[in-house]
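#structure-requests
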Amino acid sequence: QVQLVESGGGLVQAGGSLRLSCAASGTIFSVNAMGWFRLVPGKQRELVGTITSGGSTNYADSVKGRFTISRDNAKNTVYLQMNSLKPEDTAVYYCNKAFTMIPWPWGQGTQVTVSS
């Protein structure tokens, strides 16, 4: 059973930074493209960005230039560095497989709150 554990969220002022981590277990992590997603109550889950097994990244327009995804396959972990945070970035952030209609079971997510 694949388990995803997100961490690193918190409360930060606008313009600040946070680094989120997502640790995966129970799978061959390195062969999978991974994505970071975020969820705001009342809205659909939004794809923030992706990273392929080879390290190529893509980002939603709303975060391009501010967020950076990286991965450490030796640690089965994917990261999301978030800079220049805005109040509209407030959400629960999740990681999961990217480019698939069958994601792994979702983790608990990590709450990011950006105050203005």
